[in-house]
Structures are given as structure tokens and as C-alpha cells.
TrEMBL record:
The chain crosses the membrane at residues 6-26. It comes from the Eukaryota. It comes from Mycena venus. Keywords: Membrane, Transmembrane, Transmembrane helix. This is Uncharacterized protein. Residues 70-128 are annotated as: Disordered.
């Protein structure tokens, strides 16, 4: 019995020693594995941070593009307003030009009437002159 108990003690110590050595080896592997997992996780975090940065850049890019598009839209709206104002201005200028043309036509008519009036006055004046000459001749005959 003593042999058996010594045997168990001896092999028990060896088993405990082997088991003790094996457990730290497993722990060491597990630690290495967890370190690697931590690295991979950190890389994944870095990757996700990078993806987040890229996503943020894309978001900023799309925001900037949206701003530029909005500015272009505002610019085109402003250009359209200015174009419309120009059109309104040209319409107004056309109206004023037409009024000016009408005014110049009216002035031409008035001028023509004045000319007609002055011609008529001249005719009347000529008739008066002829009348007075005739009267003078008649008086001379008397």
C-alpha cells in the first residue's frame, strides 16, 4: 500500500507538475491569442475609425457638393432674376422707346400741322397782300 500511495504521490506530483506546466502554456497561448485578438480588434477599431473618417469625409464632401449645388442654384436663380430684370428693363426700354417714337410721331404731326399752319398763314398773308394790292390798284384807278 505504501508503494501504491507513493506511486500515486509520485505520479500525482508529476501529473500536477505536468498539468501545472500545461496550464501556463495554455494560458500563455490564450494570452497570446487574446493579445492577437486585441490587436485585430484594435485594427478593426482603427479600420472602423478610418471608415468613419472616410464616411465623415464623404459626408463633408456631399455637404460641400450640396452647398455648391445650392450656391449654383442660387446663382442661377439670381441670374434668372437678373435676366428677368433685364427682360423687364428691355421691355420698359421698348415701351419708352415706343413712347418716344409715338412722341416723335406726335411731334412730327404737330410739326407738320405747324408747317401746314404756316403755309396757310402764308397763303392768307399772300391773299391779304394780293387784296391790298388790288385795293391799292383800285384806289389808284379812282
Amino acid at each position: 500500500m505504501q508503494f501504491t500511495s507513493t506511486f500515486y504521490i509520485l505520479f500525482g506530483c508529476i501529473g500536477v507538475a505536468v498539468h501545472g506546466m500545461a496550464v501556463p502554456g495554455l494560458d500563455a497561448r490564450g494570452t497570446l491569442l487574446s493579445r492577437r485578438e486585441a490587436e485585430l480588434d484594435a485594427r478593426g477599431t482603427l479600420k472602423s475609425r478610418r471608415e468613419a473618417e472616410i464616411d465623415a469625409r464623404d459626408t463633408l464632401r456631399s455637404r460641400r457638393e450640396a452647398e455648391l449645388k445650392a450656391r449654383n442654384t442660387l446663382k442661377s436663380r439670381r441670374e434668372a432674376e437678373l435676366d428677368a430684370r433685364g427682360t423687364l428693363k428691355s421691355r420698359r426700354e421698348a415701351e419708352l422707346d415706343a413712347r418716344g417714337t409715338l412722341k416723335s410721331r406726335r411731334e412730327a404731326e404737330l410739326d407738320a400741322r405747324g408747317t401746314l399752319r404756316s403755309r396757310r398763314d402764308t397763303e392768307i398773308d399772300t391773299r391779304d397782300t394780293l387784296r391790298s394790292r388790288r385795293e391799292a390798284e383800285l384806289q389808284n384807278l379812282d
